[in-house]
Protein: tRNA (uracil-O(2)-)-methyltransferase
Amino acid sequence: MAEVGRTAVCDPGALLPGGFWEAVGVWLERPQVANKRLCGARLEARRSAVLPRAEAGGPRTSAGPQLGTAGRVPEESRGRRAAATAPLLAGAPGQPGKAGVEEGDVPASELDSLWSDFSRSLCGNREMLAFLAGSRAGSRPEAQHELDVVLRTVILKSSPHRPLLAPTREMVVQDVLNGTVTFLPLEDDDEGNLKVKMSNVYQIQLSRCREEWFISVLIFCPERWHPDGIAYPKLTWLGEELLTKLARWSVESGKSGFKSTLSLISVLKYSRAYWALKEKYKDMVKVWPEVTDPEKFVYEDVAIATYLLILWEEERAERGVTAKQSFVDLGCGNGLLVHILSSEGHPGRGIDIRRRKIWDMYGPQTRLEEGAITPNDKTLFPDVDWLIGNHSDELTPWIPVIAARSSYNCRFFVLPCCFFDFVGKYQRRQSGKTQYREYLDFITEVGSTCGFHVEEDCLRIPSTKRVCLVGKSRTYPPSRELSLDEQRTQYINSRRGCPLGPAGREPAPASPQAAASSAHHPGGHGALHGAAGHTPEARASELWLPGFQPREKAQRTRNCAALPRDFVDQVVLQVAHLLLGGKQLTGSSPSGTLKTWNRGVLDGRVHIRDWREQKPPKKKQPEAKRKLVPEAFKTRVCWFFMHHPDGCALPSLCCPFAHGPGELRPSLTARTEERVS
Structure:
């Protein structure tokens, strides 16, 4: 046994030992937050057990607390046990990909058999028995007490270099009384049964000495530690990186308030599908014609598409159907998500107020439509299974409403980003929450009011706004559609602070479903907007809430890119004149021959950049941007050569701009125009 790391933990909030077990729960359920080469973990089964006595002939196991007087757990330790088991039972049993323990028959029987065989072997292995008990080798373990034993599958992150990696399975033994959690790797024997490997066994331990808390990482047998760089890193990583994170997590007083990543789907299925789709659509980065960052948007949409494909695959299995779900993406933007979902066999289309350049590259199988979406009876989709709102801005709160009113079987998926209410920007009402958390709660409230069971999940995307909301089932039977639609209408109107029938303004109309039903119920909601002069055609074009404005088709320019070039040049010269202390900005000196170069100073804070001090970028630029550099080389005259008193700080060979008309090359645009003509 060897200790590879030990750190003292400052606990001003008196969160230990409970905080330690919460940190252990994070490492058990979400190891990818510490080890980026992992994709996640699945806790398959959990049982209670006890260690065998060293002098006994056999082990004792139990399916629950079966402790004698000598092994009775003190009150303080019972509190620790509650803290330890709480994170393990966070998810619903039997659902793949959940953070909680899955109590399926097969994993549970595997764990029972595995622990029975392992505990029998401990009778002849005093060193392992002492290691599990948290005591020194050769010493007698304390009186028996209950342990928590978990069967865990660690899912490894695939990559183009490692496309197919088998998950790693472990048996995790938590000893709350002694403050230890031991990780025992598993392997198949010759008959295909699980057994414990004696290599790569490690333990995380919480101890207290002289009123100070310590967290340690110990290895059972350092000579048998065989790092693979993925599930089992080098010992220095365990003793430094992991230990530091565990110590920090143990004393973090507040929780994030968000669900764990990919909690609604199978992490293993997601990992395999994501890398396959990333490889399939990676060439989109090379041909991306938009001004946005291709790597961010392509791989983000690949991740969102992967999530939806796995979500829908599991939904089909739950419902016992084979037909792939149809969809409409409202506010589809670049349309890549629609393209991927359509290419993977799901019938659907995307609608956006403005056409994008990239739309023409997808081909006819990807249906993208240019048009405004306004919440009224004409924008319903009765034959569609799912409505998608991926950063849908002003449409985000309306998507649950549109889904609910389209048909009883219509579901929704939204990934909120910008904060919009039904009309205009969302106004904060609770100072005790972050604006993001409050807005997510608002969209959840909208979905619940519309009659959906709303579930929350975190996507694995390169974005700070990665929480999605899913409404895949209803809280009411179809016979209650009329009363639920009245509830929706009241809620929508309440967001503007207006009663149902204010003078001079009509309330939000009901859906066609409810309107049809209300024809047989004179007191229903349909009577509220059925005044004379309001034909069905006129009512269909009415907004569900007056004041809604879709985004403008033409994007407003919010920087100086569209200003006249002469005006921009004049402003630049005036600023440079001030920085250089009033020196006349005409002519030039021989470039790069001066040791000193006037950078100019304004109040000691603002100066002109000296390009000789420019450091190479740390982050590798996208391939699309790297291609532009040689194409643009020497296609414009250097501003410093023309206007700076000392000329350009760089020699001509190092400056990407032309030092005089003689070095100018035709631009890519000019050459393209010549070829076309």
